[in-house]
Hints:
- By secondary structure, the chain is mostly helical.
- The chain has 3 domains: 2-95, Herpes Virus-1 (2-Layer Sandwich); 102-179; 180-284, no CATH class.
- The protein is built from 13 helices and 5 strands.
- A 3-stranded antiparallel sheet has the order 2-1-3.
Amino acid sequence: xxxxxxxxxxxxxxxxxxxxxxxxxxxxxxxxxxxxxxxxxxxxxxxxxxxxxxxxxxxxxxxxxxxxxxxxxxxxxxxxxxxxxxxxxxxxxxxxxxxxxxxxxxxxxxxxxxxxxxxxxxxxxxxxxxxxxxxxxxxxxxxxxxxxxxxxxxxxxxxxxxxxxxxxxxxxxxxxxxxxxxxxxxxxxxxxxxxxxxxxxxxxxxxxxxxxxxxxxxxxxxxxxxxxxxxxxxxxxxxxxxxxxxxxxxxxxxxxxxxxxxxxxxxxxxxxxxxxxxxxxxxxxxxxx
Length: 289
């Protein structure tokens, strides 16, 4: 019985805490910043070497195949990540002394007005990303703010995702795009001369979301579910006409674990301007030796 209680307590101690929501500040102590991203740690965790990193940054380091500590360069006896609760508490106390972060609408206005100023754009993106997950209400507020003016906010986020200063900040921009990507699916099936620019914007955003490593699988599945739920023939035709970025989206649909995606993809679909149903070519099977 004592062993069972001890095991439960141990599991509670090592359970990953909810990510910390905090934007960077000039007064932020260096110890609060991740050695990899140089940003304030949202969920500080320690390696066996004693070095502490933000969970998302060190996890990407480990997932890429590294088995050394980035700071000390020492080999890792274990890749277990232990939450640094004391440091997290100190970061929380420091965050309480900072001015409130801007609302999603204010951050988007700052992003739109930051042309030629990468630091200002990154600050706005970081502020928006800090409001995404795990609280669904906060994520919905960001999605609502972006969706209110897709034609200006999405190009700004795409531009930053392609040329932002830091890798983590660029991933944050794509994570923000993921909150509204499903709402851009109707652009792929609309008629009209004004749709061309919107189709290009929508396909680029979807390709960025589906190919990014920092976007959750749930967000990718949600986008693919919406893509295959409507007029699949027109969606396929539009993606094929979009060039390489459209191919990225099509490949994501083909390899998706979403059950309905596999079923709909195997059905013949009627392409626009064609009298004959078109069936996607089946994926080649590897021969067994």
